[in-house]
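User: structure tokens for this one?
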Amino acid sequence: MRAVLSEKGQVTIPKPLRERLGLRPGQILDFQEERGRLIGTKQSPADPIEEVYGVLKTGRTSDSILRGLRGRADAT
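Assistant:
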């Protein structure tokens, strides 16, 4: 498969490759040069931990949650 580099330095990855590799719009690719070859590697959009950090909105402090988990009466 071949693609042509545009004047802006852009290239379209052929559809069969995009489908086989699961590349979607917005996907981050990391490029490196290795012995005269261009290597593109699919990257995760963000740190998986950062993706879920802060998703639980309890309205309680962590101390209050821990007290509740430990079974103390003053868990509110």
